Amino acid sequence: MAMPHSTFTLPDFTEVGALGVVGLKRIWARQISGSRPMDDEAAREWRAIHVLTSGLQVGLEELHCYLGNVQPSFASFEDWIVQRNGGSIDRAVAERINAALTGRSPPPAASALAAEIDAMDPVLDADDLAHWEEHGWVILHDSIAPEACRATAQAVWDELGKSPDDPASWDEWTDQQQCVFIQLYRHPALDANRRSRRIHKALAQLWGTADLWVSTDRVGFNPPVTPCRAFPGPGIHWDVNLTRPIPLGIQGLIYLTDTAAHQGAFGVIPGMHRTIDAWLDSVPPGVSPRMHAAEHLTLTPIAGRAGDLILWHHALAHGPTPNHAERPRLVHYLTMFPSDFPWTPGWL
Ligand SMILES: O=C(O)CCC(=O)C(=O)O
Q1: CB 51 within 8 Å of CB 101
Q2: How confident is the model at residue 7, as a pLDDT?
Q3: Residue 233, Cβ neighbours under 10 Å: how many?
Q4: Which candidate, 60, 83, 74, places its Cα nearest to that of 1?
Q5: Structural element, H or E, at residue 54
Q6: pTM for this predicted structure
Q7: Contact, 313 vs 247, CB < 8 A?
């Protein structure tokens, strides 16, 4: 149901549909109409998309694809969200979203969880925090249990229709694969990882608040490079606007199996969150910083064990690296953020 731009009035941010969730109709209308928000609206709507996809447990990418490809009515969009949640949305979820997006205090259940996380002993020690400050990334070991790693890895294999014991099956490219990213967002194993108290505590330590939203992110599959199977990419990149100053933002992934440095490990430019201003100044005039990085920077791969969560500051140039080992690398992308996370308009 495509909307002609000229005749389409955007609903107010507070207008709700059957789910009673603020912001959702506005976000739907924004995407369907293809209109661009003004800067003051853009920050609120960008934060709303993240809070909504977290609270309603739909992937950001799948939401964009669904709205772009299907152009549904708002009622159909809400139905789609409900179906992705097994037929119902908990009232408490809508209440938490509405409180966050209208600047009210979190409801009791969310406050109780934040208090529980606050009361936990730190999971990142002083050395971890110093490492984060200096290098812009840190590892949380045992972020999820070995059984959770196995269950999540199995979910990836099942989704792809490939087998860990059949390297020939790794060659077949499936519709769910976009570079190393696999379009699997909802699965009991992924949902369980998102409830990890250790992960929540680590992110609470870095953000300075336990009132956080967990991303509904996808999984990754990076198979060994062979003469008939190229590295799927992406290459070195940032997922953030490079307009300065770049505010705090945290990305993360969990290794689901032990991952050697040459096994397609996640790679970064260590410390770039501290040096990025000088580095941007060194980019020749008229040259895209992203292109310049691709030509001149080399990622340092980070090895890890199954269950390690790697968290990185989004000002670090990063990306997966080519897999020159025998086994694929499997990950679950996962992070958390406060509802008022800092954001800079534009895209450099
Ligand atoms: O899978 C990886 O190692 C890198 C992930 C990445 O580039 C991203 O999440 O933006």
Answers
A1: yes
A2: 55
A3: 15
A4: 74
A5: helix 39-55
A6: 0.96
A7: no
Pocket test for ligand 1, best of 216, 300, 318 (most atoms within 8 A of CB): 318
How does the average pLDDT of the chain come out, rounded?
A: 96
| Angstrom distance (rounded) from CA 181 to CA 333 | 9
Helix/strand/coil (H/E/C) assignment for every residue in 227-252:
CCECCCCCCCECCCCCCCCCCCCEEE
- Cβ of 265 less than 6 Å from ligand 1: no
Q: Which residue has the tokens 């250790």?
A: 198
- Indicate the SS3 state at residue 53: helix
Looking at the DSSP bridge assignments, the partners of residue 266 are 302, 320
Residue nearest to atom 1 of ligand 1 (CA): 320
| Cis ω before 72 (30° cut-off from 0) | no
Query: 20-35: per-residue pLDDT in tens?
Result: 999 999 999 999 999 9
pLDDT tens digits along 147-186 = 999 999 999 999 999 999 999 999 989 999 999 999 999 9
User: Which two three-digit tokens encode residue 75?
Assistant: 């009622």
> Which residues, in sequence order, are CB contacts of 32 under 8 Å at separation 6+?
1, 2, 3, 8, 67, 71
Query: What is the greatest pairwise CA distance in the chain?
Result: 58
pLDDT at 3 over 70: no
Domains in the chain with CATH codes: 5-102 (no CATH), 117-337 (2.60.120.620)
Supply the DSSP symbol for 104. P
What is the token pair recorded at 261? Answer: 């440095």
